[in-house]
Here is the input.
Amino acid sequence: MRIWQIAILAGAALLPSTLTAHCDGLDGPVVEAAARALKTNDLNPVLPWIRPQDEPLLKQRFQETLAVRKSGPEAREMADRYFFETVVRIHREGEGAPYTGLKPAGRDLGPAIPAADRAIRTGSPEALQDLLGKTLAQGLHERFHAVARHKAFPENDPAAGRAYVKAYVEFLHYVERLYEAARGPAEAHAHGHQE
Here is the structure.
């Protein structure tokens, strides 16, 4: 796969219409960091996920959570959930994204996010590059061939002409979105964190 293909697909992930957050999942990295913080009584695993200006509020909520956890198993479960929700809400606000609640563990995130996480975990982007390259090639070929199929339409057939224009516009918009994404900033989060 060529580097430009990787760049275009990586950039396309930054487009608002294609973003799939996984930081708000119960099995996502933000909740995992929050769970480590509670287990160790150390807030440091969570701090990279929030903006510096949000630390005082989070420290206060962390202390409240630790205090409530001592009240028994049911209180502990409620306090943990409250802390997870608080950390994710603050993280999402830092991204400039709305908080829409914690999402269940194990939900389908599609192939790209798990592949990106695996690449980071294994230290090898090759499987991710393969996935992105195949996806880019398939998307371009499908849209290009739709245009080519409709290109030679009879001028006295407006319906056939409209089918061509529809395929043409979809192809150009697709290419433009990919190009703009590839040129765009790599920074997805307002406070410099990647999810």
